[in-house]
Amino acid sequence: MFIVSLTYIKPLEEVEKHLEAHVEYLKKQYAANSFIASGRKVPRTGGVILSKLENRDILEKILEKDPFKIQGIADYEITEFIPTMMGKGYENLG
Description:
- By secondary structure, this protein is α+β, with helices and mostly antiparallel strands.
- Helices cover 34% and strands 26% of the residues.
- The protein has 3 helices and 4 strands.
- It has helices at 12-31, 56-63, 67-70; strands at residues 2-8, 37-40, 46-51, 74-80.
- A 4-stranded antiparallel β-sheet has the order 2-3-1-4, covered by helices on one side.
- The chain is globular and about 40 Å long.
């Protein structure tokens, strides 16, 4: 499993210009089962994406297609981890 942490490197006005395209990109990745959750950071300095892809190289190729990446809106940090304990109802994360 991977945690992708996006940190905006452009002003929010620039983020907003590309938000609709980013959301469409996310929808496509959900449909392809590439992502399992995503959302904004609080405060709004970026976002987080959770992915159950098994291969980091594949994830990196998918992230290259993100309009935020293409337009230089955000930096991306990828952290891989292996869930070993899950709360009730989240056993499918393992």
